[in-house]
Amino acid sequence: MNVEYPEQREIHGIARTIRELHAAMDRAILACYGWDDLEPGHDFYPNDRGQTRYTLSPEARREVLARLVELNLEIAGRERSL
């Protein structure tokens, strides 16, 4: 990326820092669930609206959703048995 003006460099630096912080938060949340085995694969990916966003890889996203559904079913089952 060719950045000519100092304020543009600063904005790009801030954006990079925000992306790094989002990735760190995602990794921390995965660790809270005990899912350290999951590689988030952060990068720029298209979403279902045709936009490109910095986010989890499609594979990681599917795996997270599958694990959350499984966890939800497990918790619901325990609550029904109370």
Characterization of this structure:
The chain has one domain. Helices cover 61% and strands 10% of the residues. The chain has 2 helices and 2 strands. Strands 1-2 form a two-stranded antiparallel sheet. The radius of gyration is 18 Å and the shape is elongated.
What would you call the structural class? mainly alpha
Could you tell me the mean pLDDT? 92
Q: Tell me about the biggest sheet?
A: 2 strands, antiparallel
Strand order of the largest sheet: 1-2
Number of strands: 2
Shape: elongated
Total number of helical segments? 2
- Our measurement of the CA-to-CA distance between the termini, rounded to an integer number of angstroms, reads 58 Å
Oligomer: single chain
Element order, helices and strands? HEEH
The low-confidence parts are none
Rg for CA atoms = 18 Å
Share in β-strands = 5-15%
Topology of helices and strands:
Layout: H1 6-32, E1 43-46, E2 52-55, H2 58-80
Antiparallel strand pairs: 1-2
